[in-house]
């Protein structure tokens, strides 16, 4: 279906990420609450807390976008919400208020795929609301000019001091300890106009905790991409998953990934296979400097000075 765009025209020049607009949406008024279509879902929502999430999406300017929402209940069971209506709303760059996108029925996996149309360059927040209990979640859409400068970060063992993927330990993800000055490094890139990408091997069902961790660290929560495959604590084919997404960002979206951060040998291999030079690959932890990568030793204190001072601003600000 065609989707109207309630937004003003934007200048035809390369734009930096709009980290402000989508993070500060206006007052929101959602749908009226209605009874769940299935009685079993009424019981489900009454017994367990919602654990919904959305897969952030990033597209090149002029490309139609779609965002996927996933709806389930309970942090352990992750029981899918099937056959229920979800409403979607959009707000972002150049818009004066929330736009109603439409309502969609969850499939057998508890998912809805929401077409957002072709949007001007900018950043947008998508709010999903379950009609049966008014629970919800948010995701983000970024529409970028080809060639936008970006910096890529793994999370576990790279920004946090523990590698949850390696230990299959997702208890307490949202309160995991950050390396000293890791959040400041991320924010320094944001302030210089770079598109920040979080690429994590965490399975999609811990996205809620992952985003809360970024909030706790006072780091903007998008663009966040977790592994959509596998139901266990360690999704399969971590290296391939990361390689494929790096290639997508570079070859399809057109991002210029100027630096990538990681800690594991799978990060090193995935970034290399994705076309990121070892000279621009920064590794912390036991594998620091391995295979010709750039080492970060101990924590990010010294590296922060390198990011803040010698690193130029992103090309969108020159």
UniProtKB/TrEMBL annotation:
TM stretches of this protein: none
Domain LNS2/PITP: 151-293
Superkingdom of this protein's organism: Bacteria
InterPro entries with a match to the protein in the record: HAD-like_sf (IPR036412), HAD_sf (IPR023214), LNS2/PITP (IPR031315), PI_transfer (IPR001666)
PANTHER family linked to this entry: PHOSPHATIDYLINOSITOL TRANSFER PROTEIN, VIBRATOR, ISOFORM B
Designated name of the protein: Haloacid dehalogenase
Species annotation: Massilia mucilaginosa
